[in-house]
Design brief:
Elements lengths: L4 H6 L14 H15 L7 H6 L14 H18 L26
Length: 110
């Protein structure tokens, strides 16, 4: 199912479940604006960038966007960009993927 720029601009995510923080809303919203601009031909976000994007957690006192809802929508966007802007063969990485930033102590140097 292809995603349109209108759908990207108007998507509304549920809040994270009670007891979890979820994704930081401004980070997600800014990235989705870039994706919508790409679908309108005004930016150049790739499927690989969608797969690799990482969002911070919401502040301690707030619940951000639900992880699973955002991740599912980003998988649709990734497939849409891979099919529309094919510059070669794009093999989608593993299906189970989260866009949460790894804590600093868990990041590895490459």
């Amino acid at each position: 199912m292809a995603v349109s720029s209108v759908e990207v601009r108007t998507i509304q995510f549920d809040r994270a479940p009670i007891g979890t923080r979820g994704y930081y809303e401004p980070d997600v919203d800014a990235f989705l604006t870039r994706v919508a601009d790409t679908l309108d031909g005004q930016d150049d976000v790739t499927a690989e960038e969608v797969h690799d994007v990482a969002f911070g957690k919401a502040p301690l006192s707030k619940r951000g966007y639900d992880h699973s809802a955002v991740d599912a929508f980003l998988r649709l966007i990734e497939m849409t960009l891979a099919s529309h802007y094919r510059t070669g063969i794009y093999l989608a990485p593993a299906l189970e993927h989260t866009h949460a930033r790894k804590p600093l102590w868990r990041r590895t140097r490459v």
